[in-house]
Amino acid sequence: MLDGWVAARLGLPAPLTRRALERRQLERICDTLAHAAAHSAFYRARLPADRVSSWEEFAALPFTWPEDIRTQGARMVCVGGGEIERVFTVLETSGSSGRPKRICFTAGELEDTVDYFHHGMLEFAGVGDTAAILFPGRSPHSLNALLSEALRRMGAVPVVLGLPGPEDGPAVLERIVSLGARRLIGPPFAVAALAEQSRALGLDGPVGRTVDSVLLAGSFVSETHCRTISEIWGCRIDEEYGMTETGLAGAVGCTLGGGYHPWSSDLYYEVVDPETGAVLPDGQEGELTVTTLGRRGMPLIRYRTGDISRILPGPCPCGSVLPHMARVGDRHCEKKYQRVSPDDITGF
Ligand SMILES: [Zn+2]
Q: Whole-model pTM?
């Protein structure tokens, strides 16, 4: 459970309560709004001069759209260029302007992501576990680099194998076995394809005996992916929801309750009606909208993710008081397989 770590990050006493969490989240939202209005030309023109004092007032603020990032992303940045450590470029074919989204992070924000991975993966890997990572990109602060650093902090041994190409399956599978990789982290489509290849090659037995658990991240996870992987390798499956915009991280899969628990110290999710924009009650499916809490470099306020989910009502069986989100789907039914693409990194 992330609860203890979230409470500590927010300076709240343990055990965390939902009431204390929401109160502190609203305080952090107010700080973010003030920071954004003071330092970003984009937000200054959109945000009210008065301090937001309730969730109702927050829900009346304008949305930030992917198109805003594409066309006005540089005006959302709230710090000097020297403070930006990394710019991630998200290439999508569906953008109406055809421009990529560029998302900026300070060094401290990249460290926040590592810290989140570290604590979010505590149940996934332990001391001495070899973890093979299957994302593209080997540059500093790539998703591979951030995951590797988090695994090292847990005492695990990360090995970046990269995203396998169509011809790479046999070599990658043999490498997983020769490394004795008990943990595997990668995009759902790539790991499922690898599992199917292992069966076709007669390597499913050796790989299944090597790999105990798989963490699927970086794009949407489907029931089919999970079933394929667990049936072929007989391993445990964990999930992670995130996107580049939210720092490559976002929410940790819950093994007891299904779905995800959000990174609630740093992100606030709303579920809104995709057409009217009205905030929907728990249980009702709509579009996930996210606000970053405390991000100084390039805050996002009520950002429309295009992803579909709902907040599951009632307490989660795991005992967490964090919101409990259902498995996320794509509003546009597109296969954004490469949505988290740390290879595509450029500067302004
Ligand atoms: Zn749970």
A: 0.92
